[in-house]
Amino acid sequence: MSSNITLFAGSQKVEDRSSAVIMPFDSSRVLFLSQLSEALLQGNYSAPLKALGFWLRESQIKAWKEEYKPNDHLLLAPIGRVFIVSPSNVEGLFAYSWSLSYLMGNQTIVRVSAAITSDQKKLFDLFNLIDEQTNGEALNNQAFLSYDKHSDWTRKCSDWCQFRMLWGSDQSIEDIRRVTLPAQSQERVFPDRYSISVLHLEEQDIPIISGLAESFARDVITFQQQACASPKWVIWYRTSKKIQTLFWDAVEKFIVGSFAKNETFMSAQYLCAFGAEVERVGGLSIVNYREIINDGVALRGVLGQFDQSCISEIGRAFPQNLQSISHYGLSHESKLELSKTSQVSQFCRLGEALTFTKNWDGVDLITVFSRKVRL
User: Fold this and answer.
1) Which superfamily does CATH assign the domain made up of 194-349 to?
2) How far apart are CA 187 and CA 83, in angstroms?
3) Predicted local distance difference test score (pLDDT) of residue 281
4) pTM for this structure?
5) Which has the closest alpha carbon to 19: 114, 112, 139, 132?
6) How far is CA 114 from CA 6, 90, 177, 281, in A?
7) Selection from 298, 344, 319 nearest residue 169 by Cα
8) For position 90, what pLDDT does the model report?
9) Comparing 162-166, 278-282, 297-301, which segment has the lowest mean pLDDT?
10) CATH superfamily of this structure's domain 5-192
11) How confident is the model at residue 262 (pLDDT cuts 50, 70, 90)?
12) What is the mean pLDDT of the chain?
């Protein structure tokens, strides 16, 4: 491997195409991920890393294995050589996508930002520690690395891989896709997405508004609203102004100081240029407008809001790149209606917008990282 690459974990010989075939849910790979999970849960790690540890617990992996077990007609096999380009705005996302590729038996190269965070360094240190306990066997065909984006390594990795997964902004993905893949290789992209909250609160919900507000605030302030799943707008469905005010009062207690004032001010001013009205400026700006403004500008510390009494009209207001709807008070029938009238990929409860699942952005990642073999 070239000297202009920084290898954080894994093997320098990952490009070797003669790597032995490992089938999905191989016991050695389940063991590595289980040990990683146990170390994260028992050690002194941050909440995001502990969330990763919980997600990779052995009981969860066993449940997946049971769900995807082969039958007389179909089995899963590894897709082969995988190249993942991870986003820089959500530091731990690479570990989730990589772990599923690893679990499916693939040989994987993961490109991360050169400016790794403290959590990423701790995670790579843990990878290397567990790998050393297996004499380097656990990660002998895996690599976590960075390189200058102007180098030819994106082309080399793209020529090498049989499957390429890109996470990032529309622009960064367009730039990488200029590097073509071999004809037989596949690709999955996760570009810019937009997420929204739909809230239906009634008088009976007033006693729990504080808890709902805290959960909502957690979805907003984690990753500084940069994650695609972080809500940018709130649509009030049949909710009184009195309850809306109580909710925002409660949210403000948890969110004050989470965003730089200049970011909040500039984002609010941007929306005001459309004729939107700023209702509250503090730790967060709440902006009233008649429709969702979504033209690719990254907003920080700002939430738009408007009222709607018709569930079908709510769906028609959503942008085409909608990803998640975090919600409270929506019935199953209402969610079905929103699914018909919008491009939503997933619903979640307040406080769970950033909880990663194997079904993400409308895609089953376990099947994406594997081949379905008809018997």
Assistant:
1) Aldehyde Dehydrogenase; Chain A, domain 2 (3.40.309.10)
2) 9
3) 39
4) 0.85
5) 139
6) 8, 14, 20, 36
7) 298
8) 72
9) 278-282
10) Aldehyde Dehydrogenase; Chain A, domain 1 (3.40.605.10)
11) very low
12) 87
